[in-house]
Amino acid sequence: MADSSLISVEEIKKHNTIEDCWLVVNDEVWDLSEFAPDHPGGGEIIYKHAGRDASLSYNGIHAQSVLSSNLDSSKLIGALDKRSVTDEWSKPPPSATPELKLHDKPPLETIMNSQDFEDVAQRTVTKKTWAFYSSADTDCLTRDRNREFFGRMWFRPRLLRDVKRVDTSTTILGHAAGAPFFVSPAAMAKLVHPDGERAMARGCVPNRIPQGISSNASFPIEEIVSAVPKDKNHPFFFQLYVNKDRSKSEALLKHVRALGVDVCFATIDAPQAGKREADERVKADEGVAAPMSGAKASNDKKGGGMGRLMGGYIDPSFVWADMTWLRRHWPGKIVVKGVQSWQDAKMSADLGIHVLLSNHGGRNLDTSPPAIMTLLECQMNCPEIFSQIEVLVDGGIRRGSDILKCLCLGATAVGLGRPFLYATNYGQEGVEHLVEILKSELETAMALVGVTSIDQCQPGLV
Amino acid sequence: MADSSLISVEEIKKHNTIEDCWLVVNDEVWDLSEFAPDHPGGGEIIYKHAGRDASLSYNGIHAQSVLSSNLDSSKLIGALDKRSVTDEWSKPPPSATPELKLHDKPPLETIMNSQDFEDVAQRTVTKKTWAFYSSADTDCLTRDRNREFFGRMWFRPRLLRDVKRVDTSTTILGHAAGAPFFVSPAAMAKLVHPDGERAMARGCVPNRIPQGISSNASFPIEEIVSAVPKDKNHPFFFQLYVNKDRSKSEALLKHVRALGVDVCFATIDAPQAGKREADERVKADEGVAAPMSGAKASNDKKGGGMGRLMGGYIDPSFVWADMTWLRRHWPGKIVVKGVQSWQDAKMSADLGIHVLLSNHGGRNLDTSPPAIMTLLECQMNCPEIFSQIEVLVDGGIRRGSDILKCLCLGATAVGLGRPFLYATNYGQEGVEHLVEILKSELETAMALVGVTSIDQCQPGLV
Amino acid sequence: MADSSLISVEEIKKHNTIEDCWLVVNDEVWDLSEFAPDHPGGGEIIYKHAGRDASLSYNGIHAQSVLSSNLDSSKLIGALDKRSVTDEWSKPPPSATPELKLHDKPPLETIMNSQDFEDVAQRTVTKKTWAFYSSADTDCLTRDRNREFFGRMWFRPRLLRDVKRVDTSTTILGHAAGAPFFVSPAAMAKLVHPDGERAMARGCVPNRIPQGISSNASFPIEEIVSAVPKDKNHPFFFQLYVNKDRSKSEALLKHVRALGVDVCFATIDAPQAGKREADERVKADEGVAAPMSGAKASNDKKGGGMGRLMGGYIDPSFVWADMTWLRRHWPGKIVVKGVQSWQDAKMSADLGIHVLLSNHGGRNLDTSPPAIMTLLECQMNCPEIFSQIEVLVDGGIRRGSDILKCLCLGATAVGLGRPFLYATNYGQEGVEHLVEILKSELETAMALVGVTSIDQCQPGLV
Amino acid sequence: MADSSLISVEEIKKHNTIEDCWLVVNDEVWDLSEFAPDHPGGGEIIYKHAGRDASLSYNGIHAQSVLSSNLDSSKLIGALDKRSVTDEWSKPPPSATPELKLHDKPPLETIMNSQDFEDVAQRTVTKKTWAFYSSADTDCLTRDRNREFFGRMWFRPRLLRDVKRVDTSTTILGHAAGAPFFVSPAAMAKLVHPDGERAMARGCVPNRIPQGISSNASFPIEEIVSAVPKDKNHPFFFQLYVNKDRSKSEALLKHVRALGVDVCFATIDAPQAGKREADERVKADEGVAAPMSGAKASNDKKGGGMGRLMGGYIDPSFVWADMTWLRRHWPGKIVVKGVQSWQDAKMSADLGIHVLLSNHGGRNLDTSPPAIMTLLECQMNCPEIFSQIEVLVDGGIRRGSDILKCLCLGATAVGLGRPFLYATNYGQEGVEHLVEILKSELETAMALVGVTSIDQCQPGLV
């Protein structure tokens, strides 16, 4: 190597980021930016030495030739100019540099789908947050089947249709929406981002994606609703856990209604909380609380299950007859959330109440049926309900093609819960990005089965 | 690091337990209590050095920076005060300290489900005990499918029912029980705990869980029955292997009856023992014996299979006609244990004899059908039997939801065998804990499918 | 070891290739040619030291005895003659010697099936080429099921037929062919070999395998067609993406027709490109372009997906009615490529247009149905079409037995896309080799189900 | 440790076998006999040091405390008496000691099932032998499904029958047999044992298991038949590949007949050899030959596939009409081997010729149907054939329960091929042991489904 190609420490030090990552190994300077993510031992150990001399760590693990035999020679920048070495530079790297932490999130533009968001969340949120969000009842069979069942359904595409213009816009429960999906209400979004549900709201605005707000949201509902300028008239749905003390629910409903919200999801699948063992095994931070419901995280001898311990106020005596009570206190639209059998769906339709087929993300009763299965049973046993009420669906939806399958089988729209929580890890921009991804996937799927608007979806396509 | 934060050896030595575990690595003091269970190399090597200097072991495996890059800086307690180091403290740790052994059981309160009990047993009981308990016939297909089949059945929950009060109590074979499950008779509980079946009995009392007692129990039945105060009137079921020498069985029945036991399980699925290869491969301790049946563990040229070698006295000529004989010698209730086809279940019902659908935990004939499958075949081919006799079920039941599925399909109650053996690893407290877990899981499942008492269970829910 | 068996460095240096690979380890000379491919640590590290002293690397990893205890003693050639050692020879091996590179292709004669070609391609082509060729829409479920579905179909062989002479020749779309398969048109073969589609063409000649040429081929069609001597009269099929600017398509069709090509595949399953995430994640080389369509590789904020970015000119408004337009500009045979439902197949048959059942290798819509499934649905719902038009099939075909199954179910011939791309990695010889493999596998399968010519295939055999 | 417990090298050296294996590690003497098979790094490295000082190897891998923390203290025999150490003893162990070789077979009495035999064979036979025996056509789907399909069939046991005496004896093709199974003819048993088919014959005698002899056996048939004393009247079946030169087949049949053999299996599923890629990839030893057929192992440009290269003489023109020819030259019983569809089975029954449902162990046509599937199709489509001819079955049978399932579905007897080859690895004793295992498993399975003789088997039990 000619003397002219010697690289100075001054130069090397500049390349100290994930995107631009040089290392010195035994006096050779290598550009490992591209290789690092594929490093069998993980990228972190490489990033740790970005812009530095990694010889010591390297030689403890690898033979001298591993680098040169695994990398293209174009990645060898040159030889270290040893005269430029300083004492400061030679020190071992500090244990954690702010820009290169083990738990750093990759840039948002590298996130391609909802699974990417989930993977990043698993690596970067706290153990407790991950346990609370990702856990489900006992053996998590329902949670996992929720997703798998979509992969087992085949389309029957109809091609050679003009699909130049594909339009995903629709109306959900009386509200115009940019796409046939909404944020399924999920608790405690602040655990993943300081702006929590407020960031979510702002991220939903550009495409008019309705946001379901949980009784156990991290913020009072007025703070969430006010995150969006009033003139946007953004659609919000309120999710209610009926309180053992009905007067508290009545007051809450009145308060919500006063904010202009006109859709109420009455959750019926949680008279008792499921046993989310991963959640129980991690101690909860007792400072966490839900301002609207007043629920607080705590720990007892069964463990630190936030789902269980925050659900103590929910009334297990809430029954069909109470719908009269609910109607009295809620003049807007009512949706029962958590219907899991075609019989209950039909009963609800007979009462003129909309349904959200849902198993609570598999969180409450393991081996409760995936919603897509209940939806199919409705098509077989009581197809008339689809013209009587709106049938919504959630659970396991991760792709635009999943959404399209639900619509073909009669759903008005679908909800996504965990994906929005994981996207909120990136704040408002993350939520916007997720919406764009899902909408784009849906458009592609629609074009490729040969439909251009939501109302063209029909069972023959699946 | 300021001098004021130096930590003395006196202080460090105090943090020498699994719950509170400090280590010194290269003169830094770290709190590894939380990290240790996640250590890729296992927690034991960390616990071994609790309260000590682990530098030597550490440096042999890890680069200096591994600790600081993987742990939150809050776990770094401070720097070692080198002046406080003593010769005694610097020695390598003894090879095994009583409180930190590799095979130590985790605290009972961290056990969340029956699988946890099983995992602990696998790690902590002797090789032979594990082989004897866990093994099954040849390729273990039936044993494994027993469990899997429950995961493939879906509920059809009915919600918006008042489930404030869920009551699991029921009557099994004439005995009031706190929950619709019982201890399936299994042999030789002493292998896992010195109090064996006696500890089990005591653990069953608080919730009135009937205990089935095997002919091959580790204790004579009178010692098991007397482990519970007489005034508790605790329900016991006696499991009989009919002896080739009928007079011995007659004497035994008379003896059992005299103790006040009025239910007899006549085991019919073991005219020949299955081939439990894992059991055969481990030499048996020839001192082990079952006092009631007189069976003794031994070894022969086929191996050390306790199941096979202790079953030599069982009469393979026991036939349906012999039920007359049994009735003559047993005025109480009779249950044939090990029915595996709907035809046999119907034959038993015609004779007015109760059945326990069971494949002996998959231990006798591989690819014999899971009991839940036989139960379904009964529902399809001879539903009338459910009003004629009690149909019990065992095999693969591990969750409250599994229990509920059996009840919905017509079973009066279900038995659990291995889970109770593994819980007995913790003695009476372990058994109580398991009962609480199962009962609590059952209550949750009942509430979430919308039933509040055992008699509301019906096939439409599955 | 006798002095007479000392081996000189001069001798050792000769054995420095993959096929003939000696190494010196601690003064013993070993022949590792046979062992190297099985080396748990990979063969490369061994090849790197071929003909050299590997002691240093070896001792860093293995105990002295590993070699002698794992290898037959016949592999120990003898002891190193230390007097022959030179300074030059003792140096560590260069980081990459031309004949032993990590990414070297194994000799063509060791390639036994299409999977071998794929495995080699994965190791030896550029990251971008692999990503572009192998990727498919979103979760790649359709791509993978395409293959799996063939493994789930069983033959019903009829034996004791005279199968001395098995003849695979047939007629495809009016052209005599040596076997009932063709190259499915796939884009950009130059990425894998400088001669790209031209090498493919030459490799197809010996067995008269028709070649489908993509609109996005790396060469202008005239250069591909002219790669084969005119007097061979080799069959080529032209695959058209209809351009938003129809006049461009018209000019292209005219040009193609003038070259003597008389079959046009009109692709209908790509009105919008699928989301091939693996392709998007790798930056495209912006120098790459398709001369016929004018499409160019590029990168945008969504990523570097060549499939998406090169498909921008495709007209999503192309509909059934446009078949009239196509017929006007193409007097030859027309095949609609990408039919995915029996309804569309029937519609095409009604118009007298041939079909290629295809899901574009799973690249456009995930969970679109495997073509073999659509073929079965055609047999069930509209069997009459098989006598009206030719039904071709592609997707997931890798074995001669796969081809036979399609023929039995009514297909005239089948296409293979990726396998031909991966074979082109070896140029013309690779393509010839693949054709021979497939034809030979097909002959064997035909003989073993008891048919000797293509027209004897019938549904009862599957 | 008291001086009295010091162990001398003289003593230690005695414990140098697999069964009794002591090692010295850092001056402590450990008994590792029991632990060695569970050693994560394999038992061989431990056996290599049996009776020796293993400190050097040990310390290179493990921390000092690993032994003491993983093993019961009872395994610590004592401390090394250092005064007894000799120079000879201190040397590193030789690379391979006869009694402790890597490829040593475990004692026969530790073999519990046919899978154990297979596992040992995989480790101990030559690469080529393993490739030839274990390989199957292309992707080996049929070979693997052959086994799996048995695991998916459930018994419907009928209990409380008198099963004191279970009798497995039966008549196969006119010959009394001790159990309803026979050796399926397989080629070249000498590859696995010098006595090859002769050892097999002797191992079959005690239980009167008929032996099928392949045309490609390693010995001339007269040498195999004569391995058993004439007065045993042992049943042999001759398997014929019809030669392209019929006169050769005629001569061979005459010769075989003269030896008193009266059953001929005419193989019909090998008009062309399958593509056994594992076999092709390993070079054949060209010295290997089959004396009866004259077939010789060789290598060509396709590879070293013994199956393919030795099958060149087989006549692919052999057809149903030729049965007349065969009958003329074979007055004894005729079985067509390799029937794979119920139609062919029926055709054979119409001709009064017995059938062996077989797919040649999956070796010839991948995705040809498992014989148990063809057997089921016969039960459904042509049940009458079971009273007209004997229906035999082979392929994937490894357990007594597999045998029983075939019998229940109408088979007279079943054949096992590979299991007998793998058992021959242990010579005559191995074959006897395998027969005992299978017979014992069958007896157990019969008792547990409630039958005591072969003629009681019926479809309702499966």
The CATH C-level class name of the largest domain in chain A: Alpha Beta
In DSSP terms, counting alpha (H) and pi (I) runs of 4 or more, how many helices of chain A?
20
Which structural category fits the helices and strands of chain A? alpha/beta
Ranges of chain A where pLDDT stays below 50 over 5 or more residues in a row are 95-102
Number of domains of chain A: 2
Under CATH, the topology of the largest domain in chain A is which?
Answer: TIM Barrel
Largest interface: A-B, 46 and 37 residues
Helix % of chain A is 25-40%
Roughly how many Å apart are the termini of chain A?
63 Å
- Overall geometry of chain A comes to globular
Gross CATH architecture of the largest domain in chain A: Alpha-Beta Barrel
Largest sheet of chain A: 8 strands, parallel
Q: Please identify the oligomeric state.
A: homotetramer
Fourth-tier CATH superfamily name of the largest domain in chain A:
Aldolase class I
How many β-strand runs of chain A? 14
- The mean pLDDT of chain A is 90
Spatial strand order of the main sheet of chain A:
7-14-13-12-11-10-9-8
Provide the β-strand percentage band of chain A.
Answer: 5-15%
Gyration radius of chain A, in Å: 26 Å
